[in-house]
Every structure is written in C-alpha cells, then in structure tokens.
Amino acid sequence: MILRAxxxxxxxxxxxxxxxxxxxxxGLRIEGGRIADVGPFAEVRDRHPGAPVRRLExxxxxxxxxxxxxxYPQTGVIGALGLDLLDWLERVTLPAEARFADAGFARRExxxxxxxxxxxGTTRALVFGSHFPAAQAALFEEAAALGFPLTSGLxxxxxxxxxxxxxxxxxxxxENRALIERFHGKNxxxxxxMPRFALAASEALLQVSGALLREHPDLHxxxxxxxxxxxxxxxxxxxxxxxxxxxxYDRFGLVGPGAVFAHDVHPNxxxxxxxxxxxxxxxxxxxxxxxxGSGLFPMRAHLEAGVRFALGSDVGAGTRFSLxxxxxxxxxxxxxxxxxxxxxxxxxLWLATRAGAAALGQADEAGGLEAGxxxxxxxxxPPPGSTLEAVLSHAGSVExxxxxxxxxxxxxxxxxxxxxxxxxxxxxxxxxx
Length: 433
Ligand code: GUN
Ligand code: ZN
What we know:
The protein has helices at 41-47, 85-98, 103-119, 133-146, 169-183, 203-215, 229-238, 245-250, 269-277, 286-291, 299-305, 323-336, 345-359, 387-394, 398-408, and strands spanning 2-11, 19-31, 34-40, 53-55, 60-63, 65-71, 122-128, 150-153, 155-156, 190-195, 220-225, 259-263, 281-284, 308-311, 377-380, 414-419, 422-426.
C-alpha cells in the first residue's frame, strides 16, 4: 500500500549537522513491513499503479520516535513533585516497583506502558525493566504480541534498595540467562543487561553483568550515570578506589559501543573522553533532569568531547512519554544553560529519531524514511480546533511547522502509528492484539 502524505525526516551525522528533507505531496510504499519506495506521490504511484493508496490529509508523516531511556514500572509515579533523586527513589518509586512482584498486576501495567509509548508516537525504545523476572517476561510477551521492537532486560541490584528488590549475584546471573534464552533476538525483541546503578550494585553483581556481556557480545547494556550530586558523592564513598563514577562500570567491562548511560549531568573531562573513546552512548533526559532538580545537561561538553547522545523520556521521573515534549525540553534547557547549544528543528527531530535508533544499534533499520528501513511511522495531525492547528495554518516554512509541533503537539496530535508496516494505533482505536 502507498501512504500519501506530507513526509518529513532529518538527515545528517549529528544534531549540529542535521537538516530536514521534506516532500509536501509524498508517497511512501510499504511492503513486507519495510519502506519499499519513497518519493513524490505521483512518481511512486506511477511505479506501482495497482497499489492501494491511503491519503493522510494534513499534518506530517515522520519516522517513529525512538526513546533511549524509559522505565516500564514507573508509569504510575509520573508527577510525584518535590523530591530529589535519592528521596524520590526511596519514597515513591521503589515502593511502586515492588508491586511488580504480582505478575498479574505487572502484565496489566505492561499493556498500559506499551500503549502509552505507541500513542505518543514512540515505535522503538530501550526500556529499563523490572526487578522481577515474571514481570519482565510479561513485558517482553506483550511487546511481541503488539509487534513492538523492544530492547529491555531485568533490572538488578543487591544493595541500598528495598530487600524485596534485591537479587543476589548468582540468582541475577541465572535469571538473566533464562530471559536472554527466551526472548533475545526473537520477534524483534533484544536484551539489555541493566544493573540499576552503581549505588545499588556490589562488585560481584557488576562482575556478573560483565560476564553476561562477554558471553553474549550482541547484548546491549544500560544503566544510570552522574545524575545527581548526592548520588555521585555516594558512589565515590562506596567505590573509593574507582577514579570516578564511570570507572566503576569500566572496571567490569561495561563501557562499550553497546552501552547507553542515562543522564550524565555531572561528568568530569576524563569520563567524557572515555565515553567517546568507547563509542558509548548517553541518554539525555531533560524533563527528568529538571523535574528531580538533577541539573542542566552539559550538551556542549558532550559534543566537544565527541560523546554521542540520544533522548530519553525517563518516565516516571520524566513528565510524559512524548519525545516531542522531551525534545522541546532539551531545546529550552540548552537555552537557559550558560554554555548551551542552539538546537534547531532539524536537530530536535534528529535527536528524537536517528539518535535513538543508532544508540540501539539500529541506525540502518530505523530513524528515517529511506527505502529499505523498517516502516516505523507516526502521523502527526493537529486536533481540530487546537492551538497547533491554528499555528500550522500560519506556518510559512517546514521548519516553523516542525518547531510548532515540538512546542505544541502532544499525545492528542498523534493520529496514527505504524510499526514494521503494521498499524498499531489510530486515535480513538487501538489496533493491537
Ligand atoms: N537511578 C537509579 N534508578 C533510577 C530511576 O529509576 N530513575 C532515575 N531517574 N534515576 C535512577
Ligand atoms: Zn532512569
């Protein structure tokens, strides 16, 4: 089938070199879950005269968004105001995550979580999982049923959490192995090893994480890094012989090209150089960084050091699933940062699409509208009578239209979503299952 729409994506090697490519009357042919052809509508139709056409009137058809850091068990804690990271974890978030010991509850929450992602236009994600294997299996199963290409894994910790969330290293090894065997590489699912953060991990648990990565070199890795000054100081006390926070992970072989470190708000120059040398990724989570008062992301320092970063919603410290909103928060926080980077609409779209795909090791698979890629698509259309509709009616350029979408579009502007060519969401009707 051919989708006829106003097509837009971002190309380039990074946020500062990103530029937009737009086709106001474009055609995009989907076959076998992939973008089989793309170009001006008349040309695509002439090449495939028999193909059925669906016209997407108004709005913009974009590549699906890729969220590089979001927590499955935290949908219910969005909006718990007034706390810094460590108090927020102890008082709000860890108690909520303990409820995932109930597998039935976890499965319902998995459905809610996946629905929240797709109805926000997110079509791929690196998802921080649950501490409970049955809950994690439920997320993988629900993602497979929906056709959502999830990268996720069991979250592990063996100290400084709550007793019911602790997993001894040997058990963590066995539970990870069992989940990897069941889910990794099947139905579009990929597995990531995830010690929660250095503060919750013994050396033995970090060793287990490294062993899993050595045994399965195609696994991903994700954890938290340099989020909050009190957390950074506590990690330094817990690992007195480490050079810095990143070094705690590095000593166990956890810093490589398949690694994504969430936050990195307070890095030192050595850590930035090491992240760049290892080709590791950072997930920049602007709404979370502001919400928990963690600080302003030093984007310029990351760019100057050559450290690559993508966008993470970090729900539930992040305040919504929409990467449009997250990109706007990245823009605004750079505006108020004394050494902030100017991000134009192309940079924001690049960060919300290509960067996440590359961080997940899927740079050739997702993030753009080129023929050959997975047909992961989001149709943004302003709700009738909305402010966005009014602004778009005045937009004189595609840059302005996209800037308005970042400023104003939220869940209700996501009209339809396709993942791997399958319609998974239309406003007013969830076509999953
Ligand atoms: N560090 C360790 N766990 C978490 C979490 O759940 N959210 C955030 N933002 N930081 C963390
Ligand atoms: Zn997080």
